[in-house]
Specification:
Number of strands: 0
Largest sheet: none
Mean pLDDT: 86
Helix content: 55-70%
Shape: elongated
Number of domains: 1
CATH class: Mainly Alpha
Radius of gyration: 18 Å
Strand content: under 5%
CATH architecture: Orthogonal Bundle
CATH topology: Tetracycline Repressor, domain 2
Structural class: mainly alpha
Oligomer: single chain
């Protein structure tokens, strides 16, 4: 039996569901409380404003992606390209807990509410790209892999003619070639 999510995580999931099902304009603290059965006061305890809720959605997205990259990096024993392969693996990892929906909802909510709320994730993204700049791959290979991985992610999320599984496997194999041959646990 898996542990129950914290109230804060339940509220974040509810917020993502509200936006996904009813649109950003329906995202209110009252709606999130109603979706979870938590009083408005309980919601306010965790998120004093709608902005705080959106910021928490973005933080959840960035933290999860960071953790996925770190785990993939730690499992890769070949240093040149290790961060690039980690980025590719984290981007291609199937969502196990609705995090794909959370990612889209967080980004769209931030843009819909206040584009300046994207600043923290933009900073994190710059850090991820800096890792790629220093990853030891030739030319622009790391950036080609990142941008292609981001494109696949967007194609899947928005239904923009995502590739079928066979083509996806070929694309992933080619991107992995560009990122260099990673293998085995890091020493």
């Amino acid at each position: 039996m898996s542990p129950r999510p914290s109230k804060k995580k339940s509220l974040l999931r509810a917020a993502a569901t509200v936006v996904a099902e009813r649109g950003y304009s329906a995202l209110t603290l009252d709606a999130v409380g109603a979706a979870t059965g938590i009083s408005k006061g309980g919601v306010l305890y965790h998120f004093p404003t709608k902005e705080a809720l959106v910021v928490a959605l973005l933080e959840e997205l960035a933290t999860g992606f960071d953790a996925d990259q770190g785990a993939a990096h730690d499992a890769d024993s070949i240093v040149p390209g290790a961060w690039t392969r980690a980025y590719l693996r984290a981007s291609a990892a199937p969502a196990q807990d609705g995090s794909e929906q959370l990612a889209v909802v967080a980004l769209l909510a931030a843009v819909g509410y206040d584009p300046s709320l994207l600043a923290p994730i933009q900073d994190r993204y710059r850090n991820w790209v800096e890792r790629l700049d220093e990853d030891g791959l030739p030319g622009v290979d790391a950036h080609l892999v990142r941008l292609a991985a981001d494109g696949l992610w967007a194609a899947d999320l928005f239904g923009l003619a995502p590739p079928d599984p066979a083509l996806r496997a070929r694309i992933h194999a080619r991107l992995t070639e560009l990122a260099g041959p990673g293998s085995g646990p890091r020493a």
